[in-house]
């Protein structure tokens, strides 16, 4: 049981998980706080991290120091679970609420814009080949 308690308070592992969830590599975090990637690796292996270092890491990750200290996988899973599940027994309500994503841009315009850029790129390639 002691190892379970230790792993729950292992600040380095918590930093690692938060970093991974934020989609950041060790190298990027290292660059952000002005240390080497090896230093980040050492921090993530450490059960205890200096408060000053923890503050820099938290700022770079865009979270609070308390957020790192109180981080738990269970909390993340609960948030995900509560986000994607509806208490209603009506499955159509669940599907409707899950699919109720409204982008802030016109998707058709974006598709046309992308198509036009691809078409222009192909025209440029053809012109280059003709000129050779």
Automatic annotation (TrEMBL):
Swiss-Prot/TrEMBL keywords: DNA-binding
SUPFAM superfamilies according to UniProt: lambda repressor-like DNA-binding domains (SSF47413)
Name of the protein this chain belongs to:
Helix-turn-helix domain-containing protein
What GO annotations for molecular function exist for this entry? DNA binding
Q: Which InterPro entries match?
A: Cro/C1-type_HTH (IPR001387), Lambda_DNA-bd_dom_sf (IPR010982)
What species is this protein from? Hufsiella ginkgonis
Residue ranges spanning the membrane: these are none
Keyword Transcription regulation set for record: no
One Pfam family per UniProt:
HTH_3
Q: Where is the HTH cro/C1-type domain?
A: 15-68
């Amino acid at each position: 049981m002691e190892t379970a308690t230790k792993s729950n308070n292992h600040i380095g592992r918590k930093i690692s998980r938060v970093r991974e969830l934020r989609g950041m590599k060790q190298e990027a975090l290292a660059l952000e706080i002005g240390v080497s990637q090896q230093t980040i690796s050492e921090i993530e292996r450490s059960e205890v991290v200096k408060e000053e270092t923890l503050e820099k890491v938290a700022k770079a990750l865009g979270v609070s120091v308390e957020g790192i200290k109180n981080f738990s996988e269970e909390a993340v899973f609960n948030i995900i679970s509560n986000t994607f599940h509806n208490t209603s027994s009506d499955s159509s309500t669940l599907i409707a609420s899950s699919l109720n994503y409204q982008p802030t841009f016109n998707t058709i315009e974006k598709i046309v814009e992308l198509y036009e850029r691809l078409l222009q790129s192909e025209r440029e390639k053809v012109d280059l080949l003709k000129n050779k």
